[in-house]
Write a structure and sequence with these properties.
283 residues; single chain; globular; mainly alpha
Length: 283
């Protein structure tokens, strides 16, 4: 499906923008002013759309268990959304630690060529992201929030925390193992080795949000908050509205790291109890 949608996207780009832009899009030639729009077209048609269709088709027409695999029930305590917002805000220092640890990881010497290839791939992906996120107006920013924040969150959560996590739970018989396996696969799917650990952590958060609440919309909300926040911060920084560099991974200190971890654990404890209908502060 990804290949077919990719070919369709390439054809649409060629028709709308011309063959040269199609070539420049796949070589990430950002000097072409049409490449940004073409990359958005490629992203939506070749990635977001098939990622959404695959789990929906699988759940509805193959296994015929859409309720169990998609978990689209909206029936959960609304306060969980507030707890998720708090967890995502308070997790920033912990994520910074994981990013910094990840950046220092190196593969063994025999795998040096693989590491170089991974770095080159990540650099290319970064160029594509920068071309897509050249936001000059609020409308550009809102469009990016819609696609990167909302649509991507829905598609990826339906696939990973919906179908794949359910499959892993049934295969392993262990929900905790299933959450961690799915989180690792989720991070590996993005093919960004040097942000692997923080994305695994996010996947674990998302997995427990769904397992405890029984609803995919809790992880969609968390995923949306993570992606949309990055888009908004990048826009504000590019417009010189804020001085905080979104690429700066040395914002917090050791006390912040420890406090962040403690607060996250408390909030997760409250989330679990609230989702299960217990008093938030009781075990």
């Amino acid at each position: 499906m990804l290949i077919v949608c990719g070919l369709i996207a390439a054809g649409i780009i060629g028709v709308i923008f011309g063959s040269q832009t199609a070539t420049d899009t796949f070589t990430f030639n950002t000097r072409n002013p049409n490449v940004g729009a073409a990359l958005w077209t490629l992203q939506i048609i070749s990635t977001t759309l098939p990622l959404y269709l695959a789990p929906v088709i699988f759940a509805r027409f193959i296994v015929r268990e859409p309720v169990d695999y998609l978990k689209i029930t909206p029936k959960f305590p609304p306060v969980l959304l507030l707890l998720i917002l708090s967890i995502m805000i308070c997790s920033s220092p912990v994520m910074e630690v994981l990013v910094n640890v990840n950046q220092k990881l190196v593969l063994p010497a025999p795998l040096k060529s693989l590491e170089d290839a991974l770095r080159a791939m990540e650099a290319q992906a970064q160029k594509a992201t920068e071309a897509m996120l050249q936001m000059k107006t609020i409308s550009d920013m809102l469009f990016a929030v819609l696609v990167v924040g909302l649509l991507t969150a829905i598609a990826e959560e339906f696939l990973f925390r919906g179908c794949l996590q359910t499959i892993m739970i049934r295969w392993t018989g262990n929900p905790h193992a299933a959450i961690w396996i799915t989180a690792i696969l989720f991070s590996a799917f993005h093919m960004e080795f040097f942000t692997f650990l923080p994305r695994v952590a996010l996947g674990v958060f998302f997995g427990y949000f769904v397992m405890w609440s029984g609803s995919i919309w809790t992880s969609v909300w968390a995923h949306f908050l993570n992606n949309a926040t990055q888009v908004v911060i990048l826009y504000l920084y590019s417009q010189k509205r804020i001085t905080l560099d979104p690429n700066d991974q040395h914002v917090f200190n050791y006390q912040s790291y420890a406090l962040s971890l403690i607060i996250i654990l408390i909030l997760l404890f409250m989330y679990r109890n609230t989702a299960k209908g217990k008093s938030p502060l009781l075990s």
